[in-house]
Amino acid sequence: MSRLAGLLLAAGFLTSAPVHTALLVGGGAAVISGVVGVFTVIRGQAFAGHALADVSSAGGSLAFLLGVNPILGFLGMAGAAAAGMEAVGVRRLRGRDLATGVVLGAGLALAALFLYLDSTTTSTTGAAITVMFGSMFAIPAATGRLAAVVGGAALAGVALMYRPLLLASVDADLAAAQGVRVGGAGLMYALVLALSVALSAVTVGAILSTALLIGPAATALRLSRRPGQAMLVAAAIGLAATWLGILLAYDSYVWTPGHGWPVSFFIVTLIMAAHLLASRGRA
Amino acid sequence: MSGLAVERLSVALGGRPILREVSFEVAPGQFVGLIGSNGAGKTTLLRTILGFQAPAAGSVRRGSVGYVPQKILLDPDLPVRARDLVALGLDGSRLGLPLPSASRRRRVEEMLAAVDALAFADERIGRLSGGQQQRVLIAHALIRRPTLLLLDEPLANLDLHSAAGVVTLLGRLCREQGIAILISAHDMNPLLGVMDRIVYLADGRAAVGTVDEVVRGDVLSELYGHHVDVIRVHGRILVVVAPAAELAEPEQHATLLPPAPR
């Protein structure tokens, strides 16, 4: 038993402070992405979710440049992009997709500039990898408190808007006939999405945060027919994949000659595996 | 007030007149069919009554309203059961998480029973048949006990059997609960047995009365501004509009049309 545990848990896993931070912040980000992701999927906004994450990388790379907490950079940029997309996109049919595409292009151009400046004007090495693909074991412990605030705000937003958002996701006219302000609900949701994306961007990185947002939620929709239950299932899948991914990445320092593989790789692979398993189980 | 009173209502979309001086009433317990071909202005009229669309002139007075929109596209994986959607009819606009409540659950159960939907109450709504979805949407619209129920083409895309079932259900709810019902349809035939009155829309104007008063060659010819034949065969009614009238530009019509019948 202890040998098995020794195989699974490489020495120091449970006592390492960076691992603790990764488990807490990564786990929190996974839970929140799962809950928010169910709305993203049923509203058909996977593209918007992915674009927000990509655009937020401009904020993350600017934060590196200015030396402020990256979570603030991710959040500021994602929030601005979310508000921009909602403001431009709701007026016309299919306007949302176009608005998302335009904002995405502009955001990535900024990211390219800031990442270039990061690599040329500061001594920060690997900023691009960290911003885009995350570096879970390098999250400063101080980020934990900020992450808790951001995550708490996202969950509070979902709880507050739960019924109006659900109804608007079924049909906008149905919601409007009940007195729901569909535009306001959409904006609130976009801001919650920005909070969630900013949080997962510091863990698995801006580009891979889509995987945490969409994968567990899409899997949960196959397994659950109730909205609240789907959110719990998505959160559980995300949490399990994240914690197991952290464990495997930590262990990979033992299997590989000293470097280890990125945590994000393991997490996303596990999420994909869960999705395939759930799809096969139903077929 | 309960029921509905529409008075000299005109609506324009993007500068184009869609409805011109439409007037009619629906009293509590009355079943009124809003009949007209595609593009006649039925959906615009319903959206204006709901307050989604501002009128250019005229007024709408109504009581509390329940609404069944036209063709909802639902993903089969949407994690919302029939009973969840009915519950959202009760308190879907409220903020915060719904707390478990026995009275809420009982009310949803009663409403599902009233529309004969208990058998599929735990299915995802996206996986129900068209007729089953309509029943659930009607329950969603009625659970707050509105005095007026608006339905936009609820029979479109239903097979004859399901359509007859929905019509029978609506007729029963109308009479037993005294609800005022306004239902739009491009085909009036499935509704002939239950309609008290008809609002016939053509080119944005309305002829109002009983089916026998309105669906006549002379009345509809005047409404369309073009020769119309009304053919009754096997208890069904066919309205045949000469093709040229359908193809002509609305603006050209307007100059040819006599004053709207009241």
Task: Report on this structure.
The complex is a heterodimer of chains A (283) and B (262). With 283 residues, chain A is mainly α. Chain A is built from twelve helices and no strands. Chain A has helices at residues 2-8, 17-42, 46-66, 70-89, 95-121, 127-133, 143-170, 172-177, 182-203, 209-223, 227-255, 263-282. The two termini of chain B are 23 Å apart. Residues 250-262 of chain B have low confidence and may be disordered. The longest helix of chain B has 18 residues, at 160-177. By secondary structure, chain B is an alpha/beta fold. In chain B, the strands form three sheets. In chain B, strands 5-6-7-3-8-9 form a six-stranded mixed sheet, sandwiched between helices. A three-stranded antiparallel sheet of chain B has the order 2-1-4, with helices on one face. In chain B, helix 2 crosses helix 3, helix 2 (82-91) runs parallel beside helix 4 (130-142) and helix 4 (130-142) runs parallel beside helix 5. In chain B, a hairpin with a 2-residue loop joins strand 10 and strand 11. Chain A binds chain B through residues 38, 42, 44, 159-164, 166-167, 169-171, 173-180, 220-222, 224-227, 229-230, and chain B through 50, 52, 65-67, 69, 72, 74-75, 77-81, 84-85, 88-89, 91-98, 122-125, 137, 140-141.
Topology, pairings included?
The complex is a heterodimer of chains A (283) and B (262).
Chain A lengths: L1 H7 L8 H26 L3 H21 L3 H20 L5 H27 L5 H7 L9 H28 L1 H6 L4 H22 L5 H15 L3 H29 L7 H20 L1
Chain B lengths: L3 E10 L2 E11 L4 E5 L6 H9 L6 E6 L2 E4 L13 H10 L10 H13 L15 H13 L5 E5 L7 H18 L2 E6 L11 E6 L2 E5 L1 H4 L2 H8 L3 E6 L2 E6 L1 H5 L2 H7 L6
Parallel strand pairs in B: 3-7, 3-8, 5-6, 6-7
Antiparallel strand pairs in B: 1-2, 1-4, 8-9, 10-11
Helix pairs in contact in B: 2-3, 2-4, 4-5
